[in-house]
Write a structure and sequence with these properties.
Number of helices: 12
Strand content: 15-25%
Strand order of the largest sheet: 2-1-3-12-11-4-5-10-8-9
CATH architecture of the largest domain: 3-Layer(aba) Sandwich
Number of domains: 2
Structural class: alpha/beta
Low-confidence stretches: none
Mean pLDDT: 96
CATH topology of the largest domain: Isopropylmalate Dehydrogenase
Shape: globular
Helix content: 40-55%
Radius of gyration: 20 Å
Oligomer: single chain
Distance between the termini: 40 Å
Bound molecules: nicotinamide-adenine-dinucleotide, 3-isopropylmalic acid, manganese (II) ion
Largest sheet: 10 strands, mixed
Length: about 350
């Protein structure tokens, strides 16, 4: 059976990291006998330029018919001056696919501890999974956009909270059985609903999972104070967006962090957590690891190919440990060179790795 993968390269470094991820998918496909087909479509700024719409009908149709969707990144200063925004295309895609469960694992790669802005003894043991609600909250509430006043409505239903909390509790059962739910229940009504719904679900269905609650401002502090203390972090859309960028640099670079956005009715959306990085676009400097590890998540979650996913993760980890990486992780390789090394490692898992620069 051929698995249909739609690739949406997008803008800025999006096409560079998407090409790297595709090369790795092709390499693991041949090494593991998988039949994968690829189709690329426009989204974001490039889709505004080509179709006048950040999420054209042709893209929507292709994504709906795919087994999984991979996205590079969208956005950039070119589209900041008014008119349709590239980011609206990504939000529409997430909503259309029903991709409500955004999993953002933050892991420390062996040998990269020194890249963390935190002291090595503080980051040692960091291994967390951020579970971010992705299709609700302030991102999707009614908006008033005026010159004098503007508003963004934040709303959540109990059902939306339970649905994402269930994902977090289930994930915790395969990890250290600890969930930290992050909210702002001292101020926000949506957060009080969030907390009540999470507690009720835990008591009813997950008594074996330890649950605690941290207010989002304190969480921003605790993440850098003791990152290794966290297992699964469950939070709403905007808090998860902010905290995951913060958490990513604790592990060395935002360029390393992958994500999967799971749906009840589709194979899901897979994208690195970083953006289009206009400051380094077109220079071969973008770290492709977040994108490559998102491709591994695609294999595991959308296609049920856990072994192929693990082969990618192993190859990435070994390359990084050997010093093969882009500038943001202290290496001197280009985006494409990192991908080539990962592909070579997948093709020949037992070969010795040349040291960086050789
Ligand atoms: P960004 O993530 O694009 O960049 C932040 C910083 O991290 C920059 O210094 C950049 O060079 C660096 N960086 C990001 N990815 C990197 C990588 N793979 N390798 C090395 N360095 C990397 O965030 P931003 O600058 O705030 O946003 C730029 C644009 O991207 C905006 O238009 C924003 O809306 C968009 N954006 C898109 C997504 C997405 O498509 N999922 C996510 C975040 C931001
Ligand atoms: C992300 C991005 C997006 C978000 C933007 C580009 C809409 O920051 O994927 O983290 O806020 O979700
Ligand atoms: Mn973000």
């Amino acid at each position: 059976m051929t698995h249909k993968i739609v690739i949406l390269p997008g803008d800025g470094i999006g096409p560079e990291v998407a090409a790297a991820a595709r090369a790795v998918l092709e390499a693991v496909g041949s090494a593991h006998g998988l039949s994968l087909s690829f189709e690329s479509h426009d989204i974001g700024g490039c889709a505004i330029d080509a179709h006048g719409d950040p999420f054209p009908e042709s893209t929507a149709k292709a994504c709906a018919g795919a087994d999984a969707v991979f996205l590079g990144a969208v956005g950039g200063p070119k589209w900041d001056g008014g008119g349709p925004r590239p980011e609206a295309g990504l939000l529409a895609l997430r909503k259309t696919l029903g991709a409500f469960a955004n999993l953002r694992p933050i892991t420390l790669f062996p040998g990269l501890e020194r890249l963390s802005p935190l002291k090595e003894e503080r980051v040692a043991g960091t291994d967390m999974l951020i579970v971010r609600e992705l299709t609700g909250g302030i991102y999707f509430g009614d908006k008033v956009e005026g010159d004098e006043t503007a508003s963004d409505l934040c709303s959540y239903s109990r059902q939306e909270v339970e649905r994402i909390a269930r994902i977090a509790f289930d994930a915790a059962r395969g990890r250290k059985r600890r969930v930290t739910s992050v909210d702002k229940a001292n101020v926000l009504a949506t957060s009080r609903l969030w907390r009540n719904a999470v507690v009720a679900l835990r008591d009813a269905e997950y008594p074996d999972v330890e649950l605690d609650h941290v207010l989002v401002d304190a969480m921003a502090m605790k993440l850098i104070e003791r990152p290794a203390a966290f297992d699964v972090i469950l939070t709403e859309n905007m808090f998860g967006d902010i905290l995951s960028d913060e958490a990513s640099v604790i592990a060395g670079s935002i360029g390393l962090a992958p994500s999967a956005s799971l749906s009840e009715s589709h194979g899901g959306l897979y994208e690195p957590i970083h953006g289009s990085a206009p400051d380094i676009a077109g220079q071969g400097k973008a770290n492709p690891v977040g994108a490559i590890l998102s491709a591994a998540m695609l294999l595991r979650h959308a296609l049920g190919e856990g072994e192929a996913a693990a082969a990618i993760e192993r190859a990435v980890s070994e390359c990084l440990a050997a010093g093969i990486g882009t500038g943001d992780v202290g290496g001197s390789a280009s985006t494409q060179q990192v991908a080539e090394h990962v592909c070579a490692r997948i093709a020949e898992p037992d070969a010795s790795i040349p040291l960086a620069g050789t």
